[in-house]
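Q: For a teaching handout, I want to show students what a protein-ligand complex looks like in token form. Below are the inputs, and the small molecule is adenosine-5'-diphosphate. Please produce the holo structure.
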Amino acid sequence: MMGQIREAMLPPSATKCAPAVSAAQLAALCNVDKSKISYRLTRGDLPEGTMSGNRREWSMADAQVWVREFRSAHLRPANTAAITITVANFKGGVAKTTSAVTLAQGLSMRGHKVLLLDLDPQGSATTLFGVLPDAEVEQEDTAMLLFAGEHDDLSYAVRKSYWPGIDLVCAAPLLFGAEFALPARQTKDPGFEFWRCLDRGLDQARADYDVIVIDTPPALSYVTINALMAADGVLMPLPPSALDFASSAQFWDLFSDLCNQLIRSRGQDKTFEFIDVLLSRVESTDAASSVVRQWVLEGYTEKVLPIEIPKTAVTATAAAEFGTVYDLPRGSMNARTFARARDAYDRMCELIEQQIEAVWANQVEQFGG
Ligand code: ADP
Ligand code: MG
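A: Here is the structure, written as tokens, with adenosine-5'-diphosphate included.
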């Protein structure tokens, strides 16, 4: 059935492709005037795109060549490592997957090379990338063999995706096996540190990519613990509802208990470069949610990103069509709703990029780049 739905959604070849980029979008991404784009075109040293009617447009891959040229000051400096961002929250339905995938897309449009690692056995991010977890994903496409101890490095599982600049490690229900494999390895070998399996497995990726984005299941599972231990930064999407707020507090309680038991007891520690709480699926007209939003701001203070992702039909519909707001060509929906959703995600990516750049700057300072 999923195969049939996908064929209906993605005709005619049933594979996805990234949207084309208009001159206005390209100028915005490069942070220059449209006239500067036209001027630079005359030099002929950057991809010239194609004419669609009387408007010029670029493929996503070609647009990224421009972006990397104009945004070089924002890109990863030499001899620094990829920044790993884990998107996590106890609960399902809080927009973890949507946030992870839009973040990966947004950062790649800003010129970064991204690895998206799907660690949720439900494979929602994998599905958004046009791959069917049940039919098209084998063990060797997932992190399962890393967790099982058959590989020490995750590189074996990395695949190209339809989106230029994003590579993908898929997930499928078989990844539930990690919840048995990791404790079993721990029992057999008390010196094994199950929580560091992924951290170690990302060594090669940290050299090959600029940013690693990890989508996690709605649980503090063995796999989620690995994703948090491997992370430089955490993004926690949080809708302003009382139950979601309460469960987010439980999440941090449990996680810090775990850290105490596993890590501090061994004289080690775990710190994050940044923790971002993202108000997601915000309904501006809902009075109850503005009360809870106040709790979130008071509870998480400066960790709350100064942007709210509005609850919009655009996001919901786009997901149903195997994509995010960045997959839709402009003008494919109500322009104002679309712009509001897209602007919010742009701002989210910008805020997170600033923190990534700060970590790189620190690395350069510490290790001399
Ligand atoms: P999680 O990964 O936390 O379970 P998802 O990202 O899968 O959450 O989102 C859950 C549902 O909410 C999906 O159907 C998604 O399309 C929808 N959704 C996510 N963000 C928004 C939004 N801003 N507005 C409306 N619907 C949203
Ligand atoms: Mg999800």
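A: Two things your students might notice: The chain has a mean pLDDT of 91. The CA atoms of residues 82 and 210 lie 4 Å apart.
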